[in-house]
Design a protein that fits this description.
The complex is a heterodimer of chains A (303) and B (365). Chain A contains 14 helices and no strands. Chain A has 303 residues and is mainly alpha-helical. Chain A has one domain: ABC transporter involved in vitamin B12 uptake, BtuC. The relative contact order of chain A is 0.21. Chain B contains 15 helices and 2 strands. In chain B, helix 4 packs antiparallel against helix 5 and helix 4 packs across helix 10. The two termini of chain B are 24 Å apart. The chains are: A mainly alpha (303), B mainly alpha (365). Chains A and B meet through helix 3, helix 4, helix 10, helix 12 and helix 13 of A and strand 1, helix 5, helix 6, helix 11 and helix 13 of B.
């Protein structure tokens, strides 16, 4: 039972990390559909850096920087040059998929030790709670800390208020004198860094290896999670663990040798994403009340 | 600021068409730099990528064979994108078209009859439409984002294909390979020019582009699609049915993608396998944008992107470069295109901070 919960946590963390970053970007009005591409590049860079330096910390750092670099390409095109955000995000994913495949070609088949688990003397030995809460890798703790930090930032800090104001009405925010584009750059870069981190989690913890397209749509599922959460951090946590649970279940059922074709079970997370999206989106009012009003809209400072 | 943008006040006709050309040139320059970084002689690598594939006798026909699915899908997508309907699951609709058409082909086996191939065509259109109807239904009925639903269905479609070719449809005489039996003669796309792989699908792709152009430019429907895309509120006030146009965009895109899938498996491939597409459904998105969401532009753009596939294969064989460079170049091309498109609505000003910008703009109006 404990092992099941541990596996669910491992499956949920990349979703939570990527979705937390995207939440901040979307709150500022930036819809970056390039999550999948940024995660893949983060995964391959994180893996390669860890193999070459022997340090997982440096690998994680490299992955975060790679995610930021990717997101800045997106930011330059969609914020500075006002390109369509949907199309730019797709381009980022197409580019990232190719780039990660090219860079990772030499690493297919290489294996790594997973990130070490942090141990707290005494607490880690507690029954049940010990392994779940006090014997995890640093990134799982990080995912919770970052989510709480983001929630605090968005709803309790002045800067977060400004960011949300920009996402809801960039013209008004601009008129008051806030630097709309600069703050959107920062939010986009944060989203990119988090996507890179999520990618590193895939290639360093979830399955410590590299294979082409190893994120298998998790970037897109994370995007759906933000809608599922109706842009609220608490719901994001719930959603990420719900989907982590579904992903784990589909692996678990296959392991049981159930007499169902494995492809049917593998398609469960994707179908569940659709079902959840439908359930949330049918309440149009709720979406309209919570979605950042300027999501995906370009901003030009006239005058 | 080192770079400032100044609104033109109207769309620049020159840059509407100049932007794709500039983007292509920038992509070629960037490609040369990437080739150099990979330790290749840039001139030789560019020659291998861009020219060599066309020099052999089979070069041009192969270019059209690769372009056919891109054009078919691109025409459908460009009509949808105009109406701001973001069907990015064409890859899945392509797969369903191949599955539906393939089912007919496998059912008739070696049996022949003139009706077999037309039946496959209809089945494939139906398959693509069914897969696209799901996002359409979820969008119009439940307001669910079609980007995410259509993309999720792409993953499901690929798993479904994998299930079929490793399970119930697997060829018992296929030495354990995950593939179906080869389609019979009556279930194979007719070849247009002997000794080449140029099949009926190439002709159909050009016809589709022509029809798409007629619909968009000459019909009320095309007008409604354009209004919905550029001014959704105006479209609503004018009484255009938004959900009707969403349905139409997705069904059209899905049907054409399904057709493209059929022509691949009944043409160059000849059977169902787990990998029937090198990402045509996604590349067609680039084709639609590069072709300016115009069906005739899509034809040109389809040929350009088809060359990127041929070039990628040539670079893999002759230079030992991974096939992934094709995807990188395609992504870079779309980056440059989206970036260059800023010139359609804005003028670039380089140099110092533009203090008098406001009054200058006022004067120019």
């Amino acid at each position: 039972m404990i092992n099941i919960l541990l596996s669910i946590m491992t499956a949920s963390t990349p979703l939570l990390l990527a979705a937390t970053g995207e939440l901040v970007a979307e709150k500022s009005g930036v819809l970056n559909l390039g999550l999948e591409g940024m995660m893949l590049v983060g995964a391959v860079i994180g893996f390669a850096a860890t193999v070459h330096t022997g340090s997982a910390s440096l690998g994680v750092l490299a992955a975060v920087l790679a995610g930021i670099a990717m997101s800045l390409v997106f930011a330059f095109l969609s914020l500075t040059l006002m390109a369509n955000q949907v199309a730019t995000g797709l381009a980022l994913t197409i580019f990232g998929t190719g780039l990660s495949a090219l860079m990772g070609a030499g690493y297919v088949g290489t294996a790594l030790q997973p990130l070490p688990k942090l141990t707290l003397p005494g607490l880690s030995d507690l029954p049940v709670l010990g392994p779940l809460l006090f014997h995890q890798d640093a990134l799982i703790y990080g995912s919770f800390i970052l989510l709480i930090a983001v929630a605090w930032f968005l709803y309790r800090s002045h800067a977060g208020l400004v960011l949300r104001a920009i996402g809801d009405s960039h013209d008004a925010a601009h008129a008051i004198g806030y630097p709309v584009i600069a703050i959107r750059y920062a939010a986009t870069a944060f989203g990119g860094g988090m996507a890179g981190l999520a990618g590193a989690y895939m290639s360093l913890v979830y399955s410590p290896s590299w294979s082409e397209n190893m994120t298998a749509g998790r970037g897109w599922i994370a995007l759906a999670l933000v809608v599922f959460a109706t842009w609220r951090p608490g719901w994001l946590l719930l959603g990420a663990y719900l989907f982590g649970g579904i992903m784990y279940m589909s692996l678990y059922i296959q392991g049981l040798g159930v007499n169902l074709p494995s492809q049917f079970i593998s398609s469960l997370p994707y179908l569940a994403t659709i079902v959840v999206l439908v359930m949330i989106s049918r309440d149009r009012l709720r979406i309209r009340l919570n979605a950042p009003a300027c999501l995906g809209r370009p901003f030009f400072a006239a005058g | 600021m080192w770079l400032a943008l100044e609104p033109r006040g109207q769309r620049s006709a020159f840059w509407t068409y100049g932007s794709p050309v500039l983007a292509l040139l920038l992509t070629v320059v960037t490609a040369a730099i990437i080739f150099a970084a990979l330790g290749q002689d840039p001139a030789k690598a560019l020659w291998t990528f861009l020219v060599e594939p066309l020099t052999s006798a089979s070069g041009l026909p192969e270019l059209f064979v690769k372009a056919a699915p891109l054009i078919l899908i691109g025409v459908g997508l460009s009509i949808g994108f105009r109406a701001n309907v973001w069907n990015i699951g064409a890859e899945g609709q392509f797969t369903l078209g191949a599955i539906f058409g393939g089912w007919v082909a496998l059912r008739v086996g070696e049996g022949s009859g003139w009706w077999v191939f037309p039946a496959m065509l209809l089945a494939s259109i139906l398959g693509g439409m069914i897969w696209a109807a799901i996002p359409a239904l979820l969008k119009t009925r439940f307001n669910a984002n079609e980007i995410l639903t259509s993309l999720m269905l792409t993953y499901v479609a690929q798993l479904l294909l994998l299930y079929l070719v490793t399970g119930p449809w697997k060829d018992p005489e296929g030495y354990g390979f995950p593939q179906t039996a080869m389609f019979g003669d009556a279930a194979t796309a007719p070849i247009l020019i002997a000794e080449t792989r140029l099949h009926l699908g190439v002709f159909v792709a050009f016809v589709a582009a022509l029809l798409g152009w007629l619909i968009l430019s000459k019909s009320l429907l095309g007008f409604q699609l354009r209004v919905l895309g550029s001014a959704p509120r105006a479209a609503r006030f004018a009484g255009f049915s938004e959900s009707g146009l969403i349905w139409l965009s997705l069904l059209l895109g899905g049907g054409l993608a399904g057709l493209a899938g059929l022509f691949e498996v009944a043409g160059p491939i000849g059977q169902l396998t787990p990998s029937i597409s090198p990402g045509y459904g996604f590349t067609a998105i680039i084709v639609a944008f590069l072709g300016r969401l115009h069906p005739l532009g899509v034809v040109l753009a389809g040929l350009v992107l088809a060359l990127s596939y041929l070039g990628g294969e040539a670079a893999q064989i002759d230079l030992g470069l991974p096939n992934a460079v094709t995807g990188i170049f395609q992504g870079i091309l779309l980056f440059y295109l989206l970036g260059c498109d800023v010139l359609i609505l804005y003028r670039l000003r380089f140099g110092g901070k533009q203090l008098g910008g406001k009054s200058l703009r006022g004067a120019s109006r």
